[in-house]
Structure formats: C-alpha cells, structure tokens
Amino acid sequence: MADNKFLIEEQYKLLFNQINSLINNENPLITNLSNIVAAINQSFDKISWIGFYFAKNDQLFLGPFQGKVACTRIEFGRGVCGTAVATKLSQVVPDVHEFPGHIICDADSNSEIVIPILVNNEIFGVLDLDSTKFSAFTTIDQLWLEKICNLLTEKLNFKKNILT
Asked: Is residue 161 part of a domain?
C-alpha cells in the first residue's frame, strides 16, 4: 500500500506542475478550466466523470466537464455537491448510495469527491469527481485536489462570476 500511496503522490505532483504550466491568464477562465478538467481526467483511470459547477442564486450550474451527460443544476445543500457548498468543506464519499440525498446523475457512479472553490471565503463553485469504483477517492486525493483548487484561485481571475 505504501508503494501505491507514493505513486499516487507522484502522479499528483506531476499533475500539479502540469496544471500550473497550463494556466494562462490571457485566456478566458472557462478555457483554463476546460484544460484543467482534461488534465485531471487524463491522469487517473479511476475517474468516470469530472467537472466544475459554478454558484449563482443559491444553485450550482454545470461548467466544463468530461464524462457522461450531467445534472445541469444543483441546489445548495442537496446531494454531495450541494453539501460541499453548504458546509464549505470537501466531501469524500466512498459509497454514494449511502449518502443522504445523493442526486443520481449517472447510475454507474459509486463514489465521489467534491472540493469547494472559495474566493474570499465565498463559494464560487465546486470541483466534482465521480468513479464507478467504490472508495475510489482518499484523503490523498482530497489533499491534492484542494491544493489544485487553491492554485486555481490564486492564479486565475475568479473575481467575476463565470455565469454573469
């Protein structure tokens, strides 16, 4: 298991550096985020769906993603994404079928991780990853995905809501 943990850490270090180099503030925010979704998706076989949702009027709206057709609107406080928004805390869910109020966008999804994106302690959106595998995401994923989201808020212009 220690070897696997080391390999995952190394994958994330490479991914973090790749994302850092992909960020180009001359491009629109949505362009940067689209490439970031692709980079994360290509880095891990366990991901069946990945995407951003953006906050507006107490709801999350679908942004750049890769995977099957997705839910387009999620109310704050509902499902895993809405819970991440309501608590402003990352959610690691080993079995989505046991999560109260889970919203089924993809019936094949079995586990999920959602990272809130905060700008000045306000919810801007979330990064959402699903897997067909149970317990696919760990605290290592949480740590690195939080680092990636922090990098995004430091380097990209999140001051203006993407949905306006």
From this structure: no
